[in-house]
From TrEMBL:
UniProt-listed Gene3D superfamilies: 3.40.50.2300, EAL domain
Pfam families: EAL (PF00563), Response_reg (PF00072)
Residues that span the membrane, as ranges: none
Residues bearing PTM 4-aspartylphosphate: D60
Keywords, comma-separated and alphabetical: Phosphoprotein
Listed PANTHER family: CYCLIC DI-GMP PHOSPHODIESTERASE PDEF (PTHR33121), OXYGEN SENSOR PROTEIN DOSP (PTHR33121:SF71)
UniProt-recorded name of the protein: EAL domain, c-di-GMP-specific phosphodiesterase class I (Or its enzymatically inactive variant)
Domain of life: Bacteria
GO biological process, one term: phosphorelay signal transduction system
Regions annotated as coiled coil: none
Annotated ranges, domain EAL: 144-397
GO MF annotation terms: cyclic-guanylate-specific phosphodiesterase activity
Lineage: Bacteria, Pseudomonadati, Pseudomonadota, Betaproteobacteria, Nitrosomonadales
Location of the Response regulatory domain: 8-130
């Protein structure tokens, strides 16, 4: 039996879906023995019951009963010698602090991951263990945790809810808009992130109806907010798979107008790395979308291969700098240079520049210093339900000066 088959992994997380997701990925990568536990106390029980040692722990920090920090303290006292990966939805600074604490206790931490964990980020960490990925394993196959029938039924049952993440104007500190993010409310796993079901929708015949439904739900919610006196705009993500019909601008304009919402309050976000398969058709559709009054954002800017050419030809109104160029830019000169040049480019072209992935006060301060227009990220707020957003907005008005 080869090395990768002998590796034994224990995953600790109170999120049942995350346990399934990580276990699924590990097995696809060739790890045959994956153990799971839903909190630190259960993890200790699993470890104590093993005859053969566990080679890798993938450990959440926030768990009930016994959290990750308590768990790490206990296994350090037990002289655990295996490798450890920490992951959590807490701030990056707190995650790094936990890593330093674990190392100080003599534990072998080989990586940290922020939630939501992606296939790429987890695979990068696992590569440090010299686990060769089988040739037949593709990213698409790894992502297939659910099948098309499950997703199709979820849409029929209206199980997809919208969460909203605020964007803040740096000059005024006001909340200007929210990005609308789809979450599958799964009966067993709770809310499932879009990375785990949108690819299935894109590969099926569901994507056009799905995006239109999201646009309608978002517009209906915006109508409620406007009637409540909230001065907000919304943005929704549009798949390149949607840009296959020349009448798309009419379809979207009609959907928004029927919700009594001004079209100019809606921005459609297109991911840069997926642009350009049929450039003439894309240009035709996006130009007419702008003619209808929609805002148009190029999302994840800097991650594609034709950024300058894309900005030159397509009628964007907003540039969203990808989070990989925001987080840690205050400490990394190369990352800062990319962030600064991206912001300058957007400003020169007259675009509204949004920096995504702001997770710390240092990230926020640098984005302001470099001259962006808006910021978005966990330092400001996580995605939340509409009810949570209303409560958050009320609290934010009283605390924004102190926090930011």
């Amino acid at each position: 039996m080869d090395g990768k088959k002998q590796m034994r992994v224990l995953v600790l997380d109170d999120d049942k879906f995350m346990l399934k997701f990580v276990s699924h990925l590990l097995r696809e990568l060739g790890v045959s023995e994956v153990l799971v536990a839903e909190d630190g106390r259960a993890g200790l029980c699993v470890l104590s019951a093993q005859v053969t040692s566990v080679d890798l722990l993938i450990c959440d920090i926030e768990m009930p009963e016994m959290d990750g920090i308590e768990f790490l303290r206990n296994i350090a006292d037990q002289n655990y010698k295996g490798k450890i990966v920490l992951f959590s939805g807490v701030s990056h600074d707190l995650l790094k602090a936990t890593e330093r604490l674990a190392i100080a206790r003599g534990l072998n931490v080989i990586g940290i991951l922020s939630k939501p964990v992606t296939v790429d980020s987890l695979t990068t960490v696992l590569e440090q263990l010299l686990i060769p990925v089988p040739r037949e394993v593709t990213r698409a196959r790894i992502m297939q945790i659910f099948d098309e029938q499950e997703v199709r039924q979820a849409l029929v049952d209206d199980r997809v809810d919208l969460f909203f993440q605020p964007k803040i104007a740096v000059l005024s500190g006001n909340v200007t808009s929210v990005e609308c993010l789809a979450r599958w409310h799964h009966a067993e796993y709770g809310y499932v992130s879009p990375d785990n079901f949108i690819p299935i929708i894109e590969q099926s015949s569901l994507i056009n109806d799905f995006t239109r439904d999201v646009l309608i739900k978002a517009s209906q919610q915006l109508d409620v907010w406007l009637q409540q006196g909230l001065d907000l705009n919304i943005s929704i993500n549009v798949s390149m798979k949607n840009l296959d019909r020349f009448n798309l601008p009419e379809i979207y304009a009609e959907a928004v107008s029927e919700c009594n919402v001004p079209i100019n309050r809606v921005t459609l976000e297109i991911t840069e790395s997926k642009l350009g398969k049929d450039f003439a058709q894309t240009l035709d559709i996006l130009t007419r979308i702008r003619l209808k009054g929609f805002g148009l954002a190029i999302d994840d800017f800097g991650t594609g291969y034709s950024s300058m050419e894309t900005l030159k030809h397509l009628p964007f109104t907003e540039l969203k700098v990808d989070r990989i160029f925001a987080h840690g830019a205050a400490e990394d000169p190369a990352t800062r240079a990319i962030l600064e040049s991206s912001i300058k480019l957007g400003r020169v072209l007259g675009l509204n520049v949004v920096v995504e992935g702001i997770e710390t006060k240092a990230d926020y301060a640098l984005a302001i210093e470099l001259g962006c227009d808006e910021v978005q990220g966990y330092f400001v707020a996580k995605p939340m339900s509409s009810d949570e957003l209303i409560k958050w907005l009320s609290e934010y008005k009283n605390t924004n000066d102190e926090r930011l």
